[in-house]
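Researcher: Next entry in the queue.
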Amino acid sequence: MSLGRTLLLALVTAVAAGPSFAHPGGSHGYATLSVERAGARYSLTLWPATLPTAVAEQVQHARGGDAASRDQLLGVIRDKVSVTIHDRRCQPGPGSVIPPAAPAESLTLAVDYACDGGGRDVTLRDDLFDAFGADYHTLARIDTPGRSTPFVFGADAREARVVADAPAADGRGFVGFVRLGVEHILIGWDHLLFLLVLLLGGGGWLALARTITAFTIAHSATLALAALDVVVLPGRLVEAVIALSIAYVAAENVFGKPVASRRWMVSFAFGLVHGFGFSSVLHEIGLPTQGLLLALFGFNLGVEAGQALVVTLLLPALAILRRTRWERRVIWTSSCATLLLGAILFVERAFL
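Model: Structure for this entry, 352 residues:
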């Protein structure tokens, strides 16, 4: 099989293997624990597109009114999520489905926990990844009197404790958002594909540094603006333009002669759009400003670390490629395959 066909097959397989809107790293859900004097309410929002097939089917059936699927999902929450207040474990109730405020593909489940006493020392334990898969994360907000705390739950971070009037969290929440940012960029193959076709355009080390720096500055700026609700764009528009950015840069590689010294401008322009795509992870949690700033900094730091890792691996390979007689053929073939993929994604995201 030729190199071009191999690349095309790999790219199309990547599209078929995952949903178009799967930017957050791995599968995920968004949760809120609201603690009051009489107890606590835990709500979990799940999207079928971000979950393993078996769980996604359950969510879809529950959204359609299937009582058995609904009760099974609520049972998972009661079994895998525990709330402790002042060293006393709260008792979960039967639970319910919260109707969405507007038509949505998501399902929100709520379970009320009966607890004695106020909520000034709260521990939330989340073992949902045991039921939803090893790569599952819960992006959570814990609301207690006078404080809202963000946390990312996963296989290696199962518990979060919030104590009123105590210093801010021990740093595990921040580390969780850094890790989430790394996973987000590593699994967000469309962002990486855009970066790859940018680097294929060539140029010296200074030109490549400008291109990467421009992309970083641009997406960091719009990530902050979107996460803080300063500027918010429709998700479908953002995803469609991300796909268009991939197709545009690939087409420039195929049909034009990219000017390496000016490519940072293209990188900056489309980097602004990619930042809105990154922001979807944090925006859905609905964090207050104080919690969001910490989560935003950690998440962006993780994105940059993941991007730096990918670039570090790519640049030596590209340097070796440029010393061979296959350079132009590899760039042309891979850019053609990427152009086709970007066009397919754009049509799917914009019109389907």
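Model: The longest strand covers residues 28-36.
Researcher: Noted, moving on.
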